[in-house]
Specification:
InterPro entries: Quinoprotein_ADH-like_sf, WD40/YVTN_repeat-like_dom_sf. The protein contains one helix and 34 strands. The chain is mainly beta. The chain has a domain of 124 residues: Methylamine Dehydrogenase, Chain H. A hairpin with a 5-residue loop joins strand 16 and strand 17. The longest helix is centred in the N-terminal third of the chain and has 25 residues.
């Protein structure tokens, strides 16, 4: 009996070993889950508050390249093409452009040489407001009320200067948009008004000649966005809507706003929606169809209000370090969680937020770092050292990994 049991056990063991071998051959081991990576052709650019250092980051692998601008603390803006960034130095009356070297061709990206500064410069007085449409970049110069304009085909022409457009405007802290029909909407000042300006918007052509005069007097205009047909400006009492055909109307502020004005206007291309923001009130949809402002999140603790690169999500970074992510198509809150340490309301150099489809990016001036936060769970964070005091941050490039 004892030997019989032994033989039986040995038989069972042999069968088990064979079954195990058969399983190994037919059922491969589970592969480790790959960490989510940023698109290959997304780039970040930061400027520094204390030095001339400009840092380009490739977030797919965390590598950085450092460059030297003409002056410190450049205000950064991406061009509509995604390839270039404008660097505005208001106090020094200078504009430069940085070339990421990436060019989009519909289904892939070409690397056109190495990242470098473009040759073209602008020399308007106090360049302060930047917009871009197609391959054109437009800057409003507060010091003399002119626009300076350039096309990307001229960016690498040696010695090139941005073209000056004089629309007969008085110097003021102004703003402008470009419409699909090639005209521009520009803010104007009424010298006879006792109210704070700007006081209206007129439409001009590419030569600066008036096409349609301002027809709705207002005041305190600040912040603007456009979908190409409609432009929305923050103004006293509400949102000033100007169409490319010259029609103007005011969408009133919600009840209880008092003297508060929505000083930031954003257009979310992917969702086809306008968003207005005030740190004194919160974030609101600007609904052109119903002529009303609809609350998204009302709070006085919003530190940053940004639309992601594709214009599908709205991201709100609060003073306590909480990030809220809203789906702009539905208005629903998708995610929220604390991603950074709290920031004092009185802090001068606050964190700066930008986002792609996959990640939120926060430049932290006090740490000299950019934090990459996964939007999938808001807990996965990578820290990228850039410069001593990164005060500005923009996203360049394209949300794709396709090349030739």
């Amino acid at each position: 009996m004892h030997k019989g049991v032994q033989h039986a056990l040995l038989g069972f063991l042999a069968i088990a070993v064979l079954a195990s071998c058969d399983k190994d051959e037919n059922d491969p081991e589970p592969q480790p889950v790959q960490a989510v990576k940023e698109f290959e052709y997304v780039r970040l650019l930061t400027s520094d508050g204390t030095s001339t250092t400009i840092t380009q980051i490739k977030p797919a692998d965390g590598t950085t390249l450092a460059f030297q601008a003409k002056y410190p603390n450049a205000s950064l803006y991406p061009t509509a093409s995604g390839r270039f960034a404008a660097l505005l130095f208001g106090s020094q009356n200078r504009v430069e452009f940085f070339d990421s070297g990436l060019e989009y061709h519909g289904d892939h990206v070409d690397e056109k040489g190495t990242p470098t500064f473009a040759a073209i410069t602008g020399e308007g007085l106090k360049p302060s407001h930047f917009k871009s449409k197609g391959d054109e970049s437009i800057i409003f110069n507060d010091g003399d009320g002119t626009l300076t304009v350039a096309r990307e085909s001229d960016f690498h022409v040696p010695g090139a200067k941005m073209r000056v457009v004089n629309a007969g405007l008085d110097p003021h802290h102004g703003a402008m948009v470009k419409f699909n029909n090639g005209t521009y909407g520009v803010t104007v000042v009424d010298k006879s008004s006792t109210l704070a300006g700007p006081h209206g918007v007129k439409i001009i052509n590419a030569s600066g000649n008036e096409v349609i005069a301002s027809t709705l007097p207002t005041s305190r205009i600040h912040g603007n966005a456009t979908d190409g047909t409609n432009a929305v400006f923050g103004a006293e009492g509400g949102a000033l809507v100007v169409t490319q055909s010259g029609q103007q109307r005011l969408i009133p502020n919600p009840a209880g706003f008092g003297e508060v004005r929505l000083g930031t206007m954003l257009y979310a291309e992917g969702a086809k929606k306008f968003v207005g923001y005030s740190n004194l009130k919160g974030a609101y949809y600007i609904d052109l169809a119903t002529n009303e402002m609809i609350p998204i999140f009302e709070s006085t603790s919003i530190m940053q209000c940004k639309v992601d690169k594709a214009g599908r999500n709205l991201l709100l970074l609060l003073l306590d370090g909480t990030l809220k992510v809203y789906d702009l198509a539905t208005g629903n809150l998708k995610k929220e969680g604390k991603i950074i340490s709290p920031t004092a309301a009185a802090e001068t150099l606050k964190p700066v937020l930008e986002a792609t489809e996959k990640f939120a990016y926060i430049a932290l001036p006090a740490l000299g770092e950019v934090h990459q936060v996964s939007l999938a769970d808001l807990t996965s964070v990578s820290k990228i050292k850039v410069s001593a005091q990164p005060t500005k941050l923009v996203i360049l490039g394209f949300e794709t990994s396709e090349s030739h």
